[in-house]
Amino acid sequence: SADIEKMAEDVCDLVEQYINSSTDDGNDVKPGDIKIIVRSGWTMKEVQQALRKRGIPSVSKPDSVTPERVTIETAHKSKGTAARHVIIFRALDNEGGSFPQIKARGR
User: Fold this and answer.
1) CA-CA distance, 18 to 15, in Å (whole number)?
2) Average pLDDT for residues 59-77, to the nearest whole number?
3) Do the Cβ atoms of 58 and 71 come closer than 8 Å?
4) What does the pLDDT look like over 8-24, one tens digit per residue?
5) What is the per-residue pLDDT for 23?
6) Rounded to the nearest 5°, which phi and psi values hold at 33?
7) CA torsion 64→66→68→70, rounded to 10°?
8) Backbone angles phi, psi at 66, to 5 degrees
9) Which pTM does this prediction carry?
10) What DSSP line would sit under 19-84, residue for residue?
11) How many angstroms separate the CA atoms of 98 and 31, rounded?
């Protein structure tokens, strides 16, 4: 959908900002320092396609992770992994396909 494409473009903007910046210790941020977490494989494909259009290398298979590629994983697959910069795609979107809402419970 057009909304997903727009959000994927926004994620690409953020990835480019990270890549064009430095860490607190003065080192350049590499694509491999960035992980994008998505809810589904379908969304993963949309984000990968947007990254590809911008010439940003990415990978979605954990055994193919390299410093030159942004990692894209589903929330399920990303358990127990880490990255310097993590982007959670559609984390606060209340419409279909987003992460489940966490509701505060009264005591």
Assistant:
1) 5
2) 85
3) yes
4) 999 999 999 999 888 78
5) 77
6) -85, -5
7) 70
8) -140, 165
9) 0.79
10) HTSB-TTSPBPPGGGEEEEESSHHHHHHHHHHHHHTT--EE-SGGG--TTSEEEEETTTTTT---S
11) 25
